[in-house]
Every structure is written in structure tokens, then in C-alpha cells.
Amino acid sequence: MKKIKVIISVLMIICLSLTVMPIHTSAVSEDLNVGVCMIGNTSAAITATEKILSVDVDDALASVMIDGTVAKVTSLSDEQGMVEAVVVTSKGSTSVQIPLGYTTFCFSGETLTVYEGGDDKYEVAGINTADEEYLEGDATYNLPVEYDSKGNAVYRNADSYSINVAIKKKGGSYVFCGQSSDMSVSVKKEATAAAELILAGLELSSGFTAPITVKKDSTTTVDIINPKGFINTLSDTELNNEDLHGSEGTIDTTNPEYAESAVIKGKSGANVTIRGEGTLNVISNSKNGIKVAEYGSLVIEEVTLNVTSVDHGISSDNTIIIRSGVINVVSEGDGIRSDPDVVDAETGAGAVIEITGGEICIIAGSDGIQANQQLTITGGEFCIQAGDGWNDADFNSDDESCKGLKVSVNTDETTDTTECTCTMDISGGSFFLNCADDAVHSDAYINITGGDFLIYTGDDGVHADTLLEVGTEGAVAGELVINVQTCYEGLEAGTVNIYDGTIRVAADDDGINAAGGSDTTDTNIGFNPGGMRPGMGGNQTTSGDYSINVYGGDIFVNAYSDGFDSNGALNFLGGEIVVWGASSGDGEPLDHDGAMSINGATLLALGQRGMGSGSSSSGQRTITSSASVRQGQTINVNYNGTVVYSTEAVKSCSYVLFSSPQLSSTNGWSISTASSSAQVSCEHGRLVTSKEFEKSTDCTDGSAYVQVVYCAVCGEEISRTDISQVDVIEPVIPTEPETEPETEPETEPETEPETEPETEPETESAPTQIDTLPEPTQTTSVETEPTAPAERKYRVGDSNLDAVVNVKDATLIQKHIAQLDKVSETGCICADVNDDSQVNIKDATMIQKYIAGLVGTFPKGEFVTVSI
Fold first, then answer.
1. Are strands 602-607 and 70-75 parallel, antiparallel or unpaired?
2. What's the predicted TM-score (pTM) here?
């Protein structure tokens, strides 16, 4: 037994030095750390920070031997497969997947050991930048090979050659583990059978090519599998950049064939799937993190995928499909991109991105998610920062594009969007978009029928060059929410159709706009306002082609120019709309060059000026007021002395228009304020005077005000309102655009102790697993001195521990998720605002909503006490 213990201890040390990567689960405990390490191809060592109590496996497949904090799982079968192991410690339980029986390649520095298993359709060869023939045929460089005591082949890098493991075109399933800084894996060209690359604790880099390459013209799928319990890391070097070091490199041509410009590269026609419940880290020092070329596809599901890239994070010339998983991208270029270098005139290129689920966090130097032709999103949680965010002072729209969600033709500068089929369809998902440029953009069509959007942008909230359709006629209220907290213009397109949804817009310029022209960051030269479906053409000739049509929805617009601005028709055919135009200058709440129609909508329009120059053909009556209203006053719409609609003035105005299907006649209707006189028009077309009487006997306490409204023509009393008894029903009002999300009270509550970030212990570090909340450090009392541990109170949401909750905290969490920065252990406790024992995209989004006033309190509460 003593000998066995020594062997297990040695195995544990070897595993820790090579491939052990701790995993975490918060299902039972916050600090349950379990690591897995392959031992050849028939055994694995499981390590834990606590004593392992049991490991449950299928006893027909594997046996288990436990010694303290280490357990060894050994295969009992010659069959290859995944063995599920449930590990139980005093802290709780978790499960891992162990691949047993496969041919396994174990990397260790300059050597590679091959443990033969189920499949043998592979070759091991030496490659360098001067010898590039073997992958085109059967020629190989004869690497030095030795054999260990069990007969396993051991290869070694030699003579400037680095080892490449090539899976032949007939495929098979193989395991890769260990560590090397100068080796690679490839699937040979014209693959005809599926290949599975199982990464089981692999840390692999290559000096001059992609760590994993799928060669061209594959007719089947190559699966890169990350089993539960393993953390894998792939990286490359600058020499892997074809643009700089390839056959036509701008620096040199030292690497003409093996430079792949990506850490994971699928060549023309390759179909790559990245999946599994483990973690894959991709670090690009050359160009792209992951790239699939023309006519290929990339599918991502289940996996936790962390990509850091000096250019694009995840890129394809054809199709990207994301079904599930946790995806974190930090890129200097686009975060996720489907955009071909050249579009085939005959067969075309898909240039499609489809997302059905997952948690996606992106910090991009350019666009967050960009597709050339089609972007379809049906679900998922998104947290996207493009550029340095909405208040990026250095953003230059003339030569940069920093959009959140984008469908745009970037490859052909002569493309006219009258012939473009760029389409974005969003039917679900939760979106936090913080962008220097448009938050949601298409060169042609956008159709949003579901989803919850919180938008901060330095340009347009949602922009479509041709047609923007929001909602679905007859949809359930609450399924679609678009909240544009700050923007230049809120919703803009050649034609805007709104059918339903809750829409809130605070705009520095126009709130909802139908106009010509596209922004200068797009290379297309056309603007197609015709509003027809993709493939049906359109016009770009006269202002009559532009229109805004509201069929339903709950809409609030606060604009500092025009509230609604249509260069053509403006139609309100349903819904409940409150729109504020400019409080000064020439902005109008309702600006229209064509005809305006109000027929079926409840509309309250307010500003300093009236309506645009176009004609009006309303099917229902309106009442107006030209009295001065101050910011903060209550504006009441009354019928026979009863307030039927009320709102608070978010700014000063001197023009109020109200229209409703209930206004069959203007008799009995009036507009008033709670503290000043107002004038409204009646059916006679003359002004009606509003008078206030102090201490009226009509009031219950004899001291309040009554407002009486008379018709100036007939003298009939239209309404008498006891202002002290008015029930004010206020709609949700977005924050003023000039109020930045960072705004916080200058003083903390007196009962809150002073919090100084500098007092954090220097040894404190972020948890290894990016979405797992560590257990607070507990101070152990000395038996002879039973004193209580010292404690400190922190504000929930204050991830950077500077005593305030603002956008900096949400940004730090984003960077922590993407492994660009670290949140301290105490910071993680504060950052877990939804109290689910994880720090992830959900917390960052909830903090943003808290800043915007959309969340009143966090589920975790206002403060948390931490032992120090």
C-alpha cells in the first residue's frame, strides 16, 4: 500500500506540472476545486483541495482508487469512450468526463509520447518553414523516435523541425493533452470521415503555424471537443500572420505556406465544431483567434470559450452558428465576424451568423458581431462593448466602425444597397450594447420581434438603411423591450414600422427618424427607403418614399431635436405614444414633410413648437395647449373634470398635443397643469381659458385649488378639476441623456464605513474559474482568545471596491470574464449582484440596468459584510 501511495503521489506531481487545470462548480459549494490529468490513455488522476470521499463511475467501465486528495480512475475495457466520474468531497460534489481508450498524444516540452488506442489513422512528422511538402503527400521528415518501457513511441523536436500530428483523411477520435510551445495538430486535406480532436488538459502553441489546422476540401465535420473538467489553452506567435510573413508578406516571406493567420484555422470548405462542457482558451498573437475560410462552417455549443485576439476574435468567410455555451471575446478587431474576402458571383458565400443561445460577452476594438449578409438571433444573453463605448472621445466615424450588432457589405465599395440583401432578424435574447458607433445596424433590413435591449451609443440606437420593423402585430406585451438610454438618434431607417413593444428613447438629436443617407463608416453608396422585403427592390428618389408607421406599442421619446422626424409620411395608427421634442431651438415633437395621420393611437406630443410642414389628415380629434409648462410639473389630460391621462414634464415646453380614439368630440376635454394656467382649444376652434380659485368650497379641506375650463365661444364650462384630489398616473420615464450612467451620490450613507480599495490584501487574487464566486476568506479565531473576526461592509455591485457603483464596475466584470483583468475575491462577492454564486455576464448586465434606473435593488441587497 505504501508503494501505491508513492506512485499516486508521483503521478499527481507530474500531472500538476503538465496539465492539471482546476475546475469549479458552485452547485454545492463555492470553493470545490477539482482537477483532472490524463495518465497515458487508460488512466486519469483526479485531484481536489479537500479529501476525496468517493468517486462514482460506471464500474463496468472503470475502477477507482482513492488516496486522500487524489483518485486514480483506470479503464477496465478495451473500448474507447467518455467515463463520467462524480467526485464527492466534504465541500460537495461535481462531475468530470474522462476520455479512456483513445489514441492519446501527450505533449511535454520538446517531446511527444503516443499511447496507441482505438484509431491509428494518423502520422507524426517534422515540419519547418523551409520544408512544406509532406502534408501534400506521404513524405515525412524522419523525426528521432524512442520507445519507453511500455513500448510507447516518444518523438522529439530536432534539427529546427517541430512536431506535427496529422490526422489522415479517414478521421477517427484522438485525445491530446500536456504542454508544448512548438508543436501543432492538423487534419489532412479532403477528409472523408469525421475526426474528433479531444482536448484533455492541453496547452499547445506553435512557433510558426496554427496549433490546430483543418485542411481544405473536407466533406465531413471536425469536432474539437473539450470534456467537462478540463481547461485547454491554444496560442500562436506573430510569425503565424500570412499578411506579414506569408508568400506576399509586408514584412518578409519567411513563412509562405504554414502561416495560417489564426490559432484554430479551418481552410476552404472545412466544417469545424467546437463543443464540450470544458473550457477552451484561444490566444492569438498573429491575427484571428478562430477562422474558417470560404464555403466552410463553424459551430459552437456548450463550451466555455475565451478568445483574445490582436485582430478578429471569431471569424468565418461563410457561416457561424452559436447554439449555447459561454463565449468571451476580447479583440482589437471585430469580436465575432462572418465576412468573406471575396464573394463568389455564382455560388455566393453564406456570410451568415445564427445565434440561438449562450452567454456572449465581447469587448471589441471594432464591431461586436458583424455579418456580411445575414444575422439571425433567437436567444442568448449579450454584453457587447464596441470601441471604448458610447462616450469614446477618440472615435472617428470617418475611418472606424465600432457597432454592436451589424450586417454590412464591407468587401465591395461599389455595392449599392438597392441590390443588397443584408438582413438582421432578432426574435429573442437579452442585450446590453455599449458602442461608440451604431448599436444595431444593417445596410438594408432589420426585423426585431423580440428581445430585451439596453443601449448606450455614440450614434444611432437602431439603424437600417432600408427598412426597420419593430414588433409583431398582436404580440404579447412585454416580449420586446428597446431602451435606448443615450444616443445621437434612436431608431432610424428609410421606412420605420412599429407594431408593438416597449420602446424608450433618449436622443441628443431625433428620436425616431425616417430619412435618407447612411453613416460615413459604411462603404455602400446607396440608401433604399422603399421599405419592401429583401429581394423586392426599392427606391431612393423622392421624400415620398420615406415613412414612419406606428401600429402599436408603448413608446416614450425624449429628443433634443425632433421627437418623430419623417422626410415623408408620419402615421400613428395604434399604440400609446409620449413624445418630447426640443425644449429650445427648432426641434419639433412631430416633424413630417409628407402627410400625418392619427387614427387609432393615443398620442401626447410636447415641445416648444408645433408640427412639421406636411399636411394632416387625422381620423380622430386632437386638443392642444400653448401654455408654458415647466420641467417637473404634472400635465393632466382631463375629461369632464376627471384626469384620464397624466405625465410629468421632463423638460419645459409651450406646446402640448393630445389625441385619443376616445376623443369623438372635444366637449369636456382639456389639458391642464397642476400649478399653472393652461389654454386648450375646443371644437369651436377658439381658445379656452383655464382659471384657478384658491380655497374653493368645492374642495374637501377648503384650502386647495380647483381649475375651471371655459369655452371662449359659448362660455360653457368644460371641466372643473379639484387639483388636490388628482391621481397622477406617471409612465416610466427614461433618464435624461445628459445624465451619465456613472452619476452617483457624492456622499455615502452615514452608517456605511469608509471603504478604501487600497486596503485589499496584496495576496488576494481572482478565482481561476471566471464565472465562479470564491468563498469569502474567514478569519479563524484562536481558542485562547475567542474574539469575533474583523468585518467590513461593502456596497453590492462595487466590483472595483471604490465605494460607488457605476459603469466602471460593469466594465471590470466584462474584462474579468474575458480574462483581460481580474476582480479580487472581495470584489467578486460584491460583483455577484444576482446572488447566484457566480460572476458572469448576468451580473454585468444587471449593474448596467441598476445604473440606468431599470433595477431598483439587487437580489443580493444593498450591502454585504465580509470578514477581513
1. unpaired
2. 0.77
